[in-house]
Amino acid sequence: QGKFTLLRDTRTDGSFLVHHFLSFYLRAGCKVCFVALLQSFSHYNIVAQKLGVSLTAAKERGQLVFLEGLKSCLDLLFGEEEEEQSEQPSPLQFIRAKSPFSSRESNSDLRALFDFVRTSLTPAGSDSWKGLVLLVDDLGVLLSLGTTPVAVLDFIHYCRVVVCSQLKGNIVVLVHSNEDSEDEENELVVNSLCHHSDLILWVEGLATGFCKDVHGQIKIIRRVSLELTGEQDHVQIYQYKIQDKNVTFFARGLSAAVL
Amino acid sequence: VFTEEDKYALYSNLLFKYFLAEGVVCGHDLFVASAKVHPDNILKELPAPLLDDTHRNELGEETTAVKAEDFQDSMKIAWRYQNLPKMEASPTTSTKFGHYYDLSKTMSPELFQSIKWHSFYLPEELSSQPKMKTWNMSSAYARLLQSIQRIIYQEGFDGSDPQKKQKNILRIGIQSLGSMLWGDDICSSDTPEDMHSLTTFLYVLRGLLRKSLSACIITVPAHLIQNKAIMERVTNLSDIVVGLESFIGSERETNPLYKDYHGLVHVHQIPQLNSLICDVSDTKDLAFRLKRKLFTIERLHLPPDLSDTVSRASKQDLAESAKLLSSGCGAMAIGKKHLDF
């Protein structure tokens, strides 16, 4: 409870972990607020069905609050005039605001997004969910849309305060990173989040290149050092292969193709 | 679909035209946007489709000659794109996917009459409507987005009109996005004024494409963009990223290793839609060449190292290029170190 998990990928795609956590938490009976910035709802739905969970059903019974970033952005930009005056401001309204002075000023406002997260996860009284989860895929998109790294980190911080400390929920966030990346803002966000995470799942491509049987390796870092007991972080490394409905993990060098 | 242009934009224009031509032949609607060349002119230059019989005969002759040289593993990579023409070395065993085109002839105007096409030529658009709401991006991009959205809505590609029985696909082609002609200065300076213009545009475009029945190809002069962070973000936001590196003007043109080819194809990312994994082909080394009538993409076949006096320089170059070539796409593992056995 109250944990912040960071999913980080380098040189490969770690979105299978997002699908896993989504179906895992839904099956466990938690209420999930999913901020899906990169893909459409049907993409996640189809994959979730392969994993045995129906997202539409979860949405209908209120277990899943899905913010589809792409759709919300379109509604915001191309929406009719009447919708602009509705009571609920769009969570992504920072895209539209462009101050005439400098580009640093008013488009760093992720407050609307945070309000959205807060209202969707605050228990309504008649809820009986086993837990609360905020899932974000992926955080780097916010930087592409014009926010500053500080704004993104503030947003995450506010979310942690509300979700982890107050509501005892979990947060899972996906970020991309690269070793020789020139995207300094992204690296800043990623490094900062790494320091604050309780658990880091770091998915990397193999150093030796592409392999059909081993898609990559995953490093599981349990940040025990944050608990101030003097212990170092526990690091475990496994390799994995992704199949259509499943991901198999195995110890390094012991892929099924080799044995 | 996102194509990084090669230095002189020769070959990326070819791919662009192929995409549009395929749309014409399949009866899809087209939307062409450009800041440099008027879309009418672009459409006039689309290659003519080949009729089945004549082409199969020609290819058949070529195949027999080619087979004798042991070139049997030509790669079919067109399935990575949506409906692009497919070139094969052995058309007899293939399933027909897409159409073939003859580059020496242009498409006849009768073929255009059956489809609807829309164009967006930036200099015209800028002069027509002076005022419109600008979002977080340059006005040229904002106008383009509005234009695309209007077409999608009016023609019913987003399913908003349930009475339209016939569902069609809109193929969007945008040429040279990010260049200075679009009013974006990311190509000219290291710290551009508005870094997020292009990425925001792409995000909104992605939303539009996901919501409607359309596919889009964009060519970008990547070599001109100074700030590499933008390219990384752009790659993240695209489904498919292909880089074309032509040998014109580089030292590789005279390199005997590459004498059969006109350039390399780097696939940086392939789509991972609706499933946990993506479908990766066996090979990553792809090169393209432009024959008189065809543009083919094949597996890079390096000639055997026969000469006695192979210099160190060429071996080094080979190792370098092998390292480059073995870098896979973003969705799969990318190797960094060149291991010597």
In short:
Chain A has 259 residues and is of the alpha/beta class. Chain A has helices at 15-27, 41-50, 55-60, 69-78, 81-84, 111-121, 140-144, 149-166, 184-196; strands at 4-10, 31-36, 64-68, 132-137, 170-177, 199-204, 216-222, 234-242, 247-250. Chain A has one domain (4-78, 88-99, 106-251): P-loop containing nucleotide triphosphate hydrolases (Rossmann fold), CATH 3.40.50.300.
What does this entry look like structurally?
The complex is a heterodimer of chains A (259) and B (341). Chain A is of the alpha/beta class and 259 residues long. Chain A has one domain (4-78, 88-99, 106-251): 3-Layer(aba) Sandwich (Rossmann fold). Chain A contains 9 helices and 9 strands. In chain A, a hairpin with a 4-residue loop joins strand 8 (234-242) and strand 9. In chain A, helix 8 (149-166) runs parallel beside helix 9 (184-196). By secondary structure, chain B is an alpha/beta fold. Chain B contains 9 helices and 11 strands. The longest helix of chain B has 17 residues, at 10-26. The two termini of chain B are 37 Å apart. The relative contact order of chain B is 0.17. The interface between A and B is large, with 58 and 48 residues.
Q: Keyphrases for this structure?
A:
heterodimer; A: 259 residues; alpha/beta; Rossmann fold; nine-stranded mixed sheet; 9 helices; globular; B: 341 residues; two-stranded antiparallel sheet; 31% helix; disordered C terminus; tRNA processing (chain B); P-loop_NTPase (chain B); Elongator complex protein 4 (chain B)
